[in-house]
Write a structure and sequence with these properties.
The complex is a heterodimer.
Chain A lengths: L17 H38 L12 H32 L7 H23 L16 H20 L8 H26 L6 H34 L6 H15 L13 H12 L1 H15 L4 H5 L1 H23 L2 H7 L3 H31 L8 H32 L4 H7 L1 H53 L1
Helix pairs in contact in A: 1-2, 1-3, 1-13, 1-16, 2-3, 2-4, 2-5, 2-6, 2-13, 3-4, 4-5, 5-6, 5-7, 6-7, 6-9, 6-11, 6-13, 7-9, 8-11, 9-11, 11-13, 11-14, 13-14, 14-15, 14-16
Chain B lengths: L3 H27 L5 E2 L6 E2 L5 H13 L13 E10 L4 H11 L5 H7 L5 E7 L1 H13 L3 E9 L1 H4 L32 H4 L3 H9 L1 H4 L12 E5 L20 E5 L1 H12 L20 H6 L11
Helix pairs in contact in B: 2-10, 3-5, 8-10
Classes of the chains: A mainly alpha, B alpha+beta.
């Protein structure tokens, strides 16, 4: 059980080669990763515009579609659903197939599901611009986008589920536990949130409880599970060292699900006091599984981080793992009532969100895309040297966003708790926001490198096919002519 | 061994636990809240908002105001005042208790103080201290009143009369507690700024009302039209610098509804579970000299 994903027990059935598995994933993953790369750019551009609007209120001020509330919501939600969730589903499907040593079952349905998903994200974004946003951060897509997204997920999830059931290995590798959990976690929490916020709206603050529960589960448990599954796959695979301890992985797994599922309410919310109190305790408990996770990686690599230099994917996923641990620890301390009193509602909260979404989820998923896409496409990355630069830009972006916003938020919180006038608090934050614009820019530049690479890769993939068709049809024409 | 079903079962159980604990139980607890009899005014609290304010809440959501404004007031702690109403029989003992609670005060000063009741004998004290004194006063048979005072940075900023509670949001279709305070909390904006004209000007051009404001302007919620023979009574009174010559700026229905919503935001009804921040007291020199304040060192002003 503690072996690397490569040498799980052989079974009697004829071996499916990795090449066959990759080929079965080709169409769905090209759709999924291709569109997520496009959404990454959309979100980065919107996020950049939102930051600029702080400094020049006149920017797009007379256009009702691009008011700050819309641009910011568009940036968040396209990042979360367009890029992160979609790429996570892609990585999940590929890992399920590879670890199960079986081809993707009915991959075509996953491709159709991905098209639905993208339709849902597009509808959602248009809805936000039209002012139909739900009013709940990270869950802004309007009522009419939700069924489309859900249908898309159910198609992709069903393919994942059936592929999991078809697995040719008897024992489960730790990543597979996480993937199985992720498969079911998302539709459950999303359907709950859609039902109690859109369809049968709960009374008053119960909606806020549902919203916080959803957002926390989405990031900590769902993205956490897929991210950890990917890290537990790639690190042993690339370093060619078996995962150090499957017992520790087991501990990470169960405690992530148990503690992660019970959090998200912050101190001072107008809800029954036991909810924030329980959330605070759970936030601290989560440090356990997060620590077990990073220690496991450290023991796996046995102090030998040379693989870090050899593979870009390794860089991305290790950086992501560190960000996950840091994010969990910071969230725990931020949940202490006295600390939360100061830091909640400030840019500090934004910094933590960026750390989890960009630093953890996005970096791990980018590492996954850079590893998986050339394999399923059967084409090398056209600009192989751009990968290194994307990593550098990605890290720079995350640091230039997280650090200034965290420091600025701490200052903002301290000033708000003092008797400084509100306008002075406001202007004191500006210099931190200026620096964070550089972070936005670095992230955008890195994202452009990915998109450029994906575009050329698809071009290289499609060109021979198109040329083939053209020459084929020419041949048939000449044949017709001769007949 | 095939662990698939086992893992699946475990995942299912944790998922159900999370759902049960964080959704189902709270739903039973707050999902069925009803308006309660108001403590002071009589009637029920909260009352449904007037229709136009409800439309305004929709505009607030549509424009994404909640990205910069919270609607949630927190309280970081409480302190207590004890006011002695009557000495009862054992006057000497009571005087001793008051002296114990306020050792800074001399014997004579306490005697002087207790001549004219009611008088505060403890103010701004923490729970343990208050309980000790109150228990003793009770044993001594004195009559007293106790006041709970809410503390916290949000309250100090005047963002609310008390912390917000679940009932405050009972009639909101969308509960926009907010995530950030790029702008001030708006829980009680209707009390803080009761003037509709101010809000309209501020929405049209925030910097006219607040110098250096970083709030975006919402000019598109207004209509700019040539001034006719009879100027519209709704037209904004803008400073000359930004008033367009020959034109008047008239709020669209959205802007009016939004302002009606802002003015409806008060959350100041007394409720059982959240103590109020006392109204800022008029300076009363006599009271200032007489207040016995042993515990003020423990708490922030």
């Amino acid at each position: 059980m503690s072996s690397a994903p490569t040498n799980t027990e052989a079974t009697a059935a004829p071996e499916v080669t990795p090449q066959q598995i990759d080929a079965s994933c080709r169409i769905p993953l090209l759709v999924i990763f291709g569109s997520s790369a496009a959404w990454l750019i959309v979100s980065a551009i919107l996020s950049f515009i939102a930051s600029l609007k702080f400094h020049s209120a006149a920017l797009l001020a007379d256009c009702p579609f691009f008011t700050y509330g819309h641009v910011q919501a568009g940036a968040f939600n396209t990042l979360l659903y367009g890029f992160i969730a979609q790429a996570a589903i892609g990585v999940m499907l590929w890992l399920i197939a590879r670890l199960g040593k079986t081809t993707l079952v009915q991959g075509g349905f996953a491709a159709v599901g991905a098209i639905f998903w993208n339709l849902g994200v597009t509808l959602g974004l248009i809805g936000i611009f039209l002012g139909d946003g739900s009013g709940y951060e990270w869950f802004e897509f309007p009522k009419y986008a939700a069924p489309v997204l859900l249908a898309g997920y159910l198609l992709m999830g069903a393919v994942g589920g059936f592929t999991f059931a078809e697995r040719k290995t008897t024992e489960l590798y730790p990543s597979q536990w996480f993937l199985l959990a992720a498969l079911f976690w998302f539709p459950w929490i999303y359907a709950t949130a859609v039902a109690l916020i859109h369809w049968y709206p709960a009374v008053g603050v119960m909606q806020s409880i549902v919203h916080q529960w959803y957002a926390h589960n989405l990031v900590t448990v769902w993205l956490g599970s897929i991210g950890i599954a990917a890290v537990f796959y790639f690190v042993p695979k690339i370093s060619a060292k078996p995962l150090a301890s499957s017992n520790y992985a087991l501990l990470t797994f169960w405690f992530l699900l148990i503690f992660g599922g019970m959090g998200g309410m912050h101190h001072g919310m107008p809800v029954p006091a036991w909810l924030p109190a329980l959330s605070t305790v759970m936030a601290f408990m989560l440090i356990g599984p997060a620590l077990a996770f990073v220690l496991n990686l450290h023991w796996t690599l046995e102090d030998d981080y040379s693989a870090f230099n050899s593979s870009v994917t390794m860089k991305f996923v290790l950086a992501g793992a560190v960000a996950f641990f840091a994010g969990i620890v910071i969230q725990a301390f931020g949940a202490i009532p006295q600390v939360s009193d100061i830091l909640h509602f400030t840019f500090f909260t934004v910094a933590v969100d960026k750390l989890m979404l960009l630093g953890f989820a996005s970096l791990v998923l980018l590492g996954g895309i850079y590893y998986i896409l050339p394999r399923v496409a059967g084409v090398e990355w056209p600009f192989a040297s751009a990968l290194k630069f994307h990593f550098l830009l990605g890290i720079t972006g995350v640091l230039l966003l997280v650090l200034p916003l965290a420091l600025g938020g701490a200052q903002q919180g301290a000033l708000l708790a003092s008797d400084t006038g509100f306008m002075d608090v406001s202007s004191a934050s500006m210099k931190f926001l200026y620096i964070s614009i550089l972070g936005d820019l670095a992230w955008l530049a890195g994202s452009l490198l990915l998109l450029g690479n994906v575009k050329m890769l698809v071009y290289h993939l499609v060109k021979p096919l198109v040329l083939g068709c053209v020459t084929d049809s020419k041949k048939s024409k000449t044949r017709e002519a001769t007949v | 061994m095939n662990q698939g079903p086992l893992v699946f079962l475990g995942v299912f159980v944790t998922l159900v636990t999370s759902w049960f604990g964080m959704i189902f139980v709270p739903q039973i607890q707050v999902g069925e809240l009803k308006p309660v009899p108001a403590e002071v005014s009589g009637g029920l609290y909260p009352a449904a908002k007037p229709g136009v304010a409800q439309q305004g809440a929709e505009v607030y959501r549509q424009q994404g105001c909640y990205y910069c404004h919270s609607q949630q007031v927190r309280q970081s702690g409480v302190q207590f005042d004890v006011i002695l109403m009557e000495m009862g029989e054992k006057t000497n003992e009571v005087a001793k208790i008051v002296l114990q609670a306020n050792p800074r005060f001399g014997d004579k000063a306490v005697k002087q103080l207790l001549k004219q009741l009611p008088k505060p004998v403890l103010s701004g004290a923490n729970f343990e201290e208050t309980k000790k004194t109150v228990d003793k006063l009770k044993d001594a048979g004195a009559k007293f009143e106790m006041q709970v005072i809410a503390l916290g940075a949000d309250l100090n900023r005047g963002w609310g009369a008390r912390r917000t509670v679940a009932n405050d949001y009972l009639f909101e279709r969308t509960v926009m507690l907010g995530e950030q305070r790029i702008g001030p909390d708006l829980t009680a904006i209707g009390l803080r700024r009761p003037d509709a004209a101010w809000h309209l000007n501020h929405l049209y051009a925030p910097t006219t009302e607040v110098e250096g404001s970083k709030m975006p302007s919402y000019t598109y919620l207004f209509e700019k039209r040539p001034i006719g023979r009879t100027p519209s009574p709704d037209a904004l009174k803008l400073p000359a610098a930004i008033a367009p010559a020959g034109y008047e700026v008239v709020p669209k229905p959205e802007a009016k509804a939004l302002v009606a919503y802002l003015l409806s935001l008060k959350s100041n009804a007394a409720v059982f579970e959240a103590p109020m921040k006392p109204e800022p007291k008029k300076e009363d020199p006599a009271a200032a000299t007489n207040v016995v304040n042993a515990a003020s060192a423990v708490t922030k002003p």
